[in-house]
């Protein structure tokens, strides 16, 4: 578990963690599991009982969001009798934010005590047999953004040279497969490629990504995983395949399609995430 005292030496960071800790502890136990909700997937927060929220604008130093499908709120609530935290939306490099700003949200909730994080996203599918609307458990990642949140002065906590051998926790993946089976859902598995964006990939780039072993591609998640693993936080990830990637669908790509598919898949996504988080909380007890 990251030491909350270590990242709090700078005033704005201390104030941000303090604001989050007040939200986390105001009405019950501090949550140990957190979820980042990607494009169009924010409705999962409706599964939380006794939920309360902070707008990102109320958290000192927290970057805002400007992309459709990202509400920009930090929620805490109860799921199956235990408390979890949800970041409803995230910031991206393509919005003009620096790598350390993109990972600010997950670093802050880790500093406030979250020890396990589920990262979700909407992604383009390029895996063999994948279809629009599929759910994919992330087994590993390719960071092709050209950025790394650990670049800069030596960190105050965590390893300078962070090991990424086990980027996505095997035990958490096993629980995800168990949850999918209980829900009667097909959960595909594959490598997620993170790219800079905001333009979509060309068909030639998609062919390259397939050669590299990627099964899905998107514009988020990989930097958050690096930052969290550097802090010792356990990470799991799941992608909703919102569209087939360039050259595989026979049509042009749009963010409207991404949002529409994510919204259409909300019920299945929420069912899986609810069961999965419950298993993670059971395992942590």
Describe the structure.
There is one protein chain. With 285 residues, the chain is α/β, with parallel strands linked by helices. The protein has a single domain (6-264), classed as Rossmann fold. Helices cover 31% and strands 24% of the residues. It has helices at 11-25, 99-102, 104-111, 170-183, 203-212, 222-230, 255-264, 266-284, and strands at residues 33-37, 49-55, 73-79, 82-88, 116-125, 135-143, 187-194, 214-218, 234-244. The chain has a five-stranded mixed beta barrel with strand order 5-8-7-6-9, surrounded by four helices. Strand 6 (135-143), helix 4 (170-183) and strand 7 form a beta-alpha-beta unit. Helix 4 (170-183) packs across helix 8. The two termini are 15 Å apart. Residues 1-10 have low confidence and may be disordered.
Say what the CATH topology is. Answer: Rossmann fold
What is the approximate shape? globular
- Helical coverage, percent range: 25-40%
Strand line-up of the largest beta sheet: 5-8-7-6-9
Question: Looking at this structure, what is the CATH superfamily?
Answer: Nucleoside phosphorylase domain
Q: What is the helix tally?
A: 8
Beta-strand residue percentage: 15-25%
- What is the average per-residue confidence, as pLDDT, rounded to a whole number? 89
Order of helices and strands: HEEEEHHEEHEHEHEHH
Q: Major sheet, described briefly?
A: 5 strands, mixed, barrel
Text of the CATH class:
Alpha Beta
Number of domains: 1
Q: What's the short story on this structure?
A:
The chain is built from eight helices and nine strands.
Q: Topology of this protein?
A:
Layout: H1 11-25, E1 33-37, E2 49-55, E3 73-79, E4 82-88, H2 99-102, H3 104-111, E5 116-125, E6 135-143, H4 170-183, E7 187-194, H5 203-212, E8 214-218, H6 222-230, E9 234-244, H7 255-264, H8 266-284
Parallel strand pairs: 1-4, 1-5, 5-9, 6-7, 7-8
Antiparallel strand pairs: 2-3, 3-4, 5-8, 6-9
């Amino acid at each position: 578990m990251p030491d909350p005292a270590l990242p709090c030496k700078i005033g704005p960071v201390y104030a941000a963690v303090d604001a989050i800790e007040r939200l986390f502890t105001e009405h019950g136990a501090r949550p140990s599991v957190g979820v980042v909700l990607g494009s169009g997937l924010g409705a999962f927060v409706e599964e939380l009982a006794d939920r309360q929220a902070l707008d990102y604008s109320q958290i000192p130093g927290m970057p805002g969001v400007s992309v459709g499908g990202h509400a920009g709120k930090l929620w805490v609530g109860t799921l199956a009798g235990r408390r979890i935290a949800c970041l409803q939306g995230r910031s991206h490099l393509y919005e003009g934010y620096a790598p350390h700003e993109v990972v600010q949200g997950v670093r802050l909730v880790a500093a406030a005590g979250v020890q396990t994080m589920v990262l979700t996203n909407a992604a383009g599918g390029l895996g063999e047999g994948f279809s629009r609307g599929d759910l994919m458990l992330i087994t590993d990642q390719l960071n092709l953004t050209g950025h790394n949140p650990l670049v800069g002065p030596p960190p105050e906590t965590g390893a300078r040279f962070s090991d990424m051998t086990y980027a996505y926790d095997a035990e958490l993946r096993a629980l995800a497969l168990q949850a999918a089976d209980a829900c009667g859902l097909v959960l595909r598995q594959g490598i997620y490629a993170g790219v800079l964006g905001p333009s979509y990939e060309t068909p030639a780039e998609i062919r390259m990504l397939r050669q590299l072993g990627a099964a899905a591609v998107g514009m988020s998640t990989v930097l958050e995983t690096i930052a969290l693993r550097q802090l010792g936080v356990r990470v799991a990830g799941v992608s909703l395949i919102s569209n087939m990637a360039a050259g595989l669908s026979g049509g042009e790509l749009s963010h409207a399609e991404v949002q529409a598919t994510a919204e259409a898949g909300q019920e299945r996504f929420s069912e899986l995430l609810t069961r999965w988080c419950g298993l993670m909380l059971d395992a942590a007890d």
